[in-house]
Amino acid sequence: MPIPENPALRIEDYALIGNTITGALVGNNGSIDWFCAPRIDSAACFAALLGDRDNGHWQIAPATPAHTVRRRYRDDTLILETEFETPEGCARLTDFMVMNGRDSEERCHLVRIVEGLRGTITMEMSLVIRFYYGSMIPWVRRVGEARLAIAGPDSLYLTATVPIQGRDQTTVARFPIAAGQREIFQIGYQPTHHTVYDPPDPLAALAHTQEWWRTWAAQGRCEGPWRDVVMRSLITLKALTCRPTGGIAAALTTSLPEQLGGIRNWDYRYCWVRDATFTLWSMLTTGYTDEATAWREWLMRAVAGNPGDLQIVYGVAGERWIGEREIPWLRGYEGASPVRVGNAAADQFQIDVYGELMDSLHLARSVGLHPQAHVWDIQCAIMTFLESHWHLPDDGIWEVRGGRQHFTHSKVMAWVAFDRAVKDARRYGLKGPVARWERIRDTIHEDVCQHGFNAAKNSFTQYYGSEALDASLLMMALVGFLPATDPRVVGTVHAIETGLVEDGFVMRYRTQESHDGLSGSEGVFLPCSFWLVDNLVLQGRRADAERLFARLVGLCNDVGLLSEEYDPVARRLVGNFPQAFTHVALVNSARNLMGDGPAARRARHHAAAGAAAGARR
Q1: What's the confidence (pLDDT) of residue 106?
Q2: Domain carrying residue 532
Q3: Do 198 and 253 sit in the same domain of this protein?
Q4: Between the CA of residue 173 and those of 96, 149, 158, 165, 193, what are the distances in Å?
Q5: 334 in helix, strand or coil?
Q6: pLDDT score, position 6
Q7: Which of 65-69, 102-106, 346-350, 481-485: highest mean pLDDT?
């Protein structure tokens, strides 16, 4: 794989390293172009991904262009190895973030090890530190043989086993690397009020970090024909976790565009409530109970309070204020602007999150993760709020900015909330107005079937009275609202296959039909494409399901990572990267194809109420 001459790498040319508190993106040219410290949602100190090299990067690569590049993760770890092949020889760059018990929400360490494999290659290092998304030039001074960069509350401490020097506000080094030779570079982050810098021993940290990841991976149940891609997805999800809080960020990045050159650029370094049930299923079916419990506990801390104030998205520690603003000095990835920090979707009203919250707590109870007693009180307060609000229009699952509608998926998830409340009350002897909840559940079901189904299209549609299709309707069978074999569900799946598919993959909706308040368009949405796989499994179309799943897995980059969307014309990944929602969907679809996944379990457990209500229609 030749190194691109253009410094603007494709999204799929990046790989992730992280310490389950924050992470960084490493390009196949040896450049770290995105790194937020100390947390995943902190301000970036390397922001070349969304600007240019002067906005912060750290590159180690051959001085002359490499002919080929090979990358891989060490098995069952987040340790990245990149081999550069040149006419003079071959060298390996090993990148990782330290997992040694000393990393925290205030400190983290990146280690880069260069090893000669064959011949002798001249290597170069280039480091530009720019705090606060590329805008703050630090004060850099020598501390012994190291360099200390400080600006405001942030500091980075660079050590190296080769001579380094400053040149034009850039720290550089040039050195030969011969076969059997090794040079080591390390950067540590900590707040400036911490004045003692104590970097870990890098080789001991490498050994410990490898052992940490492999021990974690070995705890899971992950076998079968898709074991490698599933395990890579699980490791990616673990990397996107904020270990101290249990929150799982939707992605490592902000503002990677849904359309190359477009304006649909959002900050995804936060935790979405709607991801809760999908994430729990992916963890529980693969044996990661501790992570599932931590995510459930994060969820309950985040949503505690007035049910009317429930947000769809929170910070990784449960922060509620994540106001959206633009960063005008960054030009955006390949010119896609604006670059946004924060997310205004936190202020939207989306009914579906109530269903996801109730469904996730129902799932937790069903597998023995019983929450504390007060959690049911919170759920009852949420149901009281939903009783008087489920019938209102909302902003919908896709966070559109074109005005509220009676979105069909939102009503379906309101049904889920009442259905799971009834089931939990009856199954676990919990107190609540069960008969009233049952009546409301059946009323919602009838309302959706009457107003959300378009007989002329033989399909449910995006919102009441609409003719537009929406991939969120693929959830109807997956949550048990109707059986997958119900003619209306079969008709909806067929309509989506024929009307919302580009190059074999599923779009969320057609932007020109849905009035979402934004210009431009977007790529196909990879989680929805996995939902189609799940529906095909439930409908007995296994060959079609396996064929689509194989094509989706084929979109993974060379180290097994996926973004949110895919551009079938440019044949490139688009959207924030790597995307937790996509990797969760991949894990769940793989389990569904193996026969022990969430689609069949949810459909089997919950479809009876939906089928009964449908029969009374």
Answers
A1: 85
A2: 219-616
A3: no
A4: 20, 17, 12, 7, 29
A5: helix
A6: 42
A7: 481-485
